[in-house]
Amino acid sequence: MWLTIVRRTLTAISGGAAALYGAAVSAEYGLNLPRGVTPISQDAYDLHMLVLWVCVAIAVVVFGAMFISIIYHRKSRGAKPAQFHESTLVEIVWTIVPFLILAGMAIPATKALVAMEDTTNSDLSIKVTGYQWKWGYDYIDDGVSFISSLSTPQDQIYNRQGKGDNYLLEVDNPLVVPVNKKVRLLITANDVIHAWWVPELGMKKDAIPGYINEMWINVQEEGVYRGQCAELCGKDHGFMPIVVVAKNDADFDAWMQAQKSAADADASAADREWAQDELMTRGENVYNTACAACHQVSGAGVPGAFPGLVGSPIATGPIEAHLDMVMNGKPGTAMAAFAGQLNDIDIAAVVTYERNAWGNDTGDLVQPSDVEAAR
Amino acid sequence: MSTATTHDAHHEEQRSGLMRWVFTTNHKDIGTLYLLFSLLMFMVGGAMAMIIRAELFEPGLQFVQPQFFNSMTTMHALIMIFGAVMPGFVGLANWLVPMMIGAPDMALPRMNNWSFWILPFAFAMLLSTLFMEGGAPAGGWTMYPPLVLQTGNAFPFLIFAVHLMGISSIMGAINIVVTIVNMRAPGMTLMKMPLFVWTWLITAYLLIAVMPVLAGAVTMLLTDRNFGTHFFNAAGGGDPVMFQHIFWFFAHPEVYILILPAFGIVSQVIPTFARKPLFGYASMVYATASIAVLSFIVWAHHMFTVGMPVTAQLFFMFSTMLIAVPTGVKVFNWVATMWKGSMTFETPMLFAIAFVCLFTIGGFSGLVLAIAPVDIQLHDTYYVVAHFHYVLVSGALFSIFAGIYYWLPKWTGHMYNETLGKWHFWLSVIGMNIVFFPMHFLGLAGMPRRIPDYALQFTEFNQIATVGAFMFGFSQLIFLIVVMKAIKGGEKATAQVWEGAEGLEWTVPSPAPYHTFETAPVVK
Amino acid sequence: MALGNATTLTKLFVVSLMMFGFGFALVPFYYKICEVTGINSGAEQVLVKNTQVDTSRWVTLEFDANTNAGMPWQFKPAQRIMKVHPGQLVQVDYEVVNTSDRAIVGQAVPSYGPRRAGAFFKKIECFCFTPQTLAAGERRRMPVLFVLDPSMDKDVNTVTLSYTFFDTGAQAKTTELQKDLPRG
How would residue A22 be classed by pLDDT, with cut points 50, 70 and 90? Predict the structure, then answer.
């Protein structure tokens, strides 16, 4: 393994060094904090610029003095060492002056911090739940909820396919919020600690299992804003992005209506019999977003880590055991309980898909009504 | 041999071969062991850093799987902090504290032997987890529950390795305090002690105060996982955030444990090569002490995003900003020491000057991070990674380099190769800046830390950082060569070695004899 | 001098032992601070004195329910939103179903948004006071009865009451690590 690492590193370096001087590899890069689109992010930006320039000014003075003495007070120029070694006045001055500068910075910082923590008078509450490794969103007032997971294909991550513009920063179901509304976000987690962060919204908060944290955003421009999980949460910590779409009121209401009617449609569709290819198409989608990160798109799993599903005793054995595994998970392993994350149709579809894809041709069909019965 | 000695361990026959090193109670031998161990761990931790940087050279997963990547970041941190930097400083203290205060040896020589020999076992245990089912610990060196409880078979090894490291450092620290308090030569009053001794005295007190707290915290993790306690488990009335409070109550003073001895080394080196006494000796001592005291009331600035009440956030923001005052005093004092001196620029001085510049940059980014609303944006991003590497690489590590180049002639009796030393310096200082400066931009632009793969807009700066990392990494081989050459031979060093050097350690011949100051010198 | 060394050594050794103890002492200390500042409260029963209903203002209550990883229960509030006056007696029901085929003991952990509101929830009855055991497939409706203390800060007008159910029986066992070994 080590040899391979060395060899690949060498090729990567030679290739990459060329790339450095060649064409730009990717999208534009940033040098500074984004100004962002919320009052909080703009406060943070202004504070950062203030502190940065104060630091630059201090640096010019301190490093200036140091380099003057490095240049002029050197032995090779015949400098004779002075013997002074203290000066109470100077020492008091350079203790008090920095203190005053700091006090000057603390005032705007305090104001910004107090504003950040003021979650009162919000227009809308959304609960954000961190899972290993995806996000769940619940619109508390409207009863709409969904899971949002990475939509970048595994093939792009493993370099078998070119990378898209929003590589690793794209999800299947983005969080949608109205612009110019104070949106209160309640953050919690299902398993380990995560942190929800979108730089342009200026807010980051830890998602802690068993506790809810509050924060608020007030997005002032329509647009799509991307962020990532910012607290180490295990294997796929780097693969659980956040996408927020800010819409104007009319578009937001329309989106909310569409969500509600889709939920209603699913609710009524759960009662009817589903055909095999319907279930297979839907199942493939569900599988690729909910299962493929571990069990792989090919169903082969990762030897020693995640069991393969091709011809596996669960995927080709009794349907009840398979359903139980998907719905209730397997305690003591990474296999999560999906009963609370997926609806009846999705569970029926994904189980059907797993039992019939990749040559697992069991021919079994699982209907949403079977899932409901198992609940 | 002298007759006026009270130390039984002192007159043991010097054994030969390997046994000399296993049973040694001589502070110089033990110092050497610590330094060599630290060098070895520096190479191991460095190799892990190279794996991390290689994987981050391009977007996509090229070399390692995410779980192994997380193991690398976790192990890199644990090894560099507890295996490279801390033993490096303890090695310097072992060699120099007795010589600087005119003592014949450390106060507790047998415990000294123990505190070193625990370390190889601790790290063998930690490194063995790389080959275990479930892999090495991958929950970060901060070991936050519940994530760390998902560690596989490596978990108890991690906990016991941390316990052993803690016991070793506590024993080492106790030894240093006892030596400094009880063994000073007549006339060596506290305010005459060299600054390196002062900073180590304060560091040792910090170690005694906080390492046991870490031991307590990891013990709670162990009992939570294996013995059914609920310290950090919400279901049983615990709170995972409490671990973070206890951990950072240890880990913030720990950060100063990693930097205070560095202040001491730089305060020895700069006056020597400026040929001028240290400016503001007393204020240096007071500044060090106040940094140590402040370190106990700033811990939660690592936790601005966990959802603390706003008053708590304000308190920790103000106390953190306050640390800039004594730290500033130190930097001003160093600059004032150089001012109107008669400077020469041998390798130790170059590293000391680089320390002052680059540590100050790390201090500036620290001030930026102290501002809570800005920290909330930058927390857990590469900006933080840039910040603590400026403080720990160009801070702690460069000071250790400065110290080694400075005292190497005293230890080996030979001058090191100045040309190679300068090459090592310039490649290191340039490489170090190429790795870590772009990380400020990455963090500001929104790249989280501890991720094995990243979005495309972060590509350029990551590539630059990786190129710099390999440059920095490989230039450390020059350092190995310099040290080996100086051990083998080279120009004979005089007792004073450096024209401007002052202090008791420069009054004994080079190489320093196996036993020094068996008759206490008289300090005027 | 050797005697002096032994004395100093002993003192420092005792200090380090005390600091080890101090690490553990931080635990009750932490909870005391949380209690004083009103964080993490509300898991205990409170006897409410006859309080005055403050009809001059409305507070919007949001009810939220979560289950922790590997907890095969479905858990939701019967009603998501309610407008109340501080001081008024409030009852809200939560519904819970054990979807697994074994009996499970769960413990609900309360949490509040904003945190400081927690201190003002005076609970008379709550399923979070004790662990709840649900047989396989059992469905249960559980009430929470509380009064919102009228002394709650005037600027707080939306409060979320959230519960997370944890599996108590599974605590001894923890999730095994994903065995993702390095390849390459």
Answer: very low
DSSP string, C142-159: EEEEEEE-TTS-TT--EE
CATH of the domain at C116: 2.60.370.10
Q: Which domains occur in chain B, in start order?
A: 26-506 (1.20.210.10)
Q: C58 pLDDT exceeds 80?
A: yes
ipTM: 0.89
The partner residues of C75 in beta bridges, in order of sequence, read: C96
* Within a domain: C10: yes
Interchain pair B216, C164: CB under 8 A: no
Q: Can you tell me whether residue A65 is helix, strand or coil?
A: helix
Q: Is C43 on the interface with A (CB under 8 A)?
A: no
Q: Which residues, including other chains, have CB under 8 Å from residue C153's CB and lie 6 or more apart?
A: C116
Q: Do B59 and A167 touch (CB under 8 A)?
A: yes
Distance CA B166, CA B187 (A): 34
Q: Which domains does chain A have, with CATH numbers?
A: 39-116 (1.10.287), 124-266 (2.60.40.420), 273-374 (1.10.760.10)
Amino acid, res. A98? P
Question: Tokens at residue B305, please?
Answer: 């995003």
> CA angle, B331 as apex, A86 and B345 as ends, to 5°?
90
Q: What are the pLDDT digits (tens) for C69-119?
A: 878 888 989 888 999 998 888 899 999 988 888 888 888 888 888 888 888
Chain B CB contacts of A227 under 8 Å are 446
Which H helix or E strand runs over A45?
helix A39-72
Q: Quick check: helix, strand or coil at residue C122?
A: strand
For residue B419, the distance in angstroms to the closest alpha carbon of chain C comes to 40
Testing the interface with B: which of A38, A91, A213 to mutate, by most B Cβ within 10 A?
Answer: A91
Q: Does one domain contain both C8 and C82?
A: no
Taking contacts as CB-CB distances below 8 angstroms, the residues of chain B near C23 are: 212-217, 220, 246, 250
Stated as kind and residue range, the H or E segment containing A226 is: strand A223-229
Residues C68 and C156 in one domain: yes
- The partner residues of B200 in beta bridges, in order of sequence, read none
Average pLDDT, chain B: 92
Are residues C20 and C74 located together in one domain of the fold?
no
Tokens 């007792």 correspond to B495
Proportion of chain B in helix, strand, coil states, percent, rounded to 5: 70, 0, 25
Give me the active site residues of B, please.
Answer: 76, 105, 141, 168-169, 252, 254, 256, 267, 301-302, 327, 330, 449
Q: Are B425 and B19 in contact (CB under 8 A)?
A: no
The conformation of residue A190, written as its DSSP 8-state character, comes to S
User: Which residue in B316, B367, B386 sits closest to A54, CA to CA?
Assistant: B367
Q: Residue A132 and residue B376: Cα distance in Å, rounded?
A: 22
Residue C47 lies in a domain: no
Whole-angstrom distance, CA of residue B183 vs CA of residue B191: 15
* Two tokens, residue A6: 């060395």
Q: What's the structural domain count of chain C?
A: 2
The predicted model scores a pTM of 0.89
B271 contacts: CB under 8 Å, gap ≥ 6: B277, B278, B337, B500, B502
The DSSP element (H or E) to which B465 belongs, if any, is: helix B459-488
User: Among all residues of chain B, which has the CA nearest to that of C112?
Assistant: B307
E-state strands within A74-131:
124-131
Q: Are strands C89-98 and C139-148 parallel, antiparallel or unpaired?
A: antiparallel
Task: Report whether the peptide linkage leading into residue A133 is cis, meaning its omega lies within 30 degrees of zero.
Answer: yes
Cα B230 from chain centroid?
33
- Residues C26, C64, single domain; the answer is no
List the domain range (segments joined by +) for residue C1: 1-37
Residues 6+ apart with CB under 8 A from B155: B137, B148, B149, B222, B225
Q: Is residue C179 part of a domain?
A: no
On whether residue C74 sits in a domain, the answer given is yes
Provide the Cα torsion A113, A119, A125, A128; round to 10°: 30
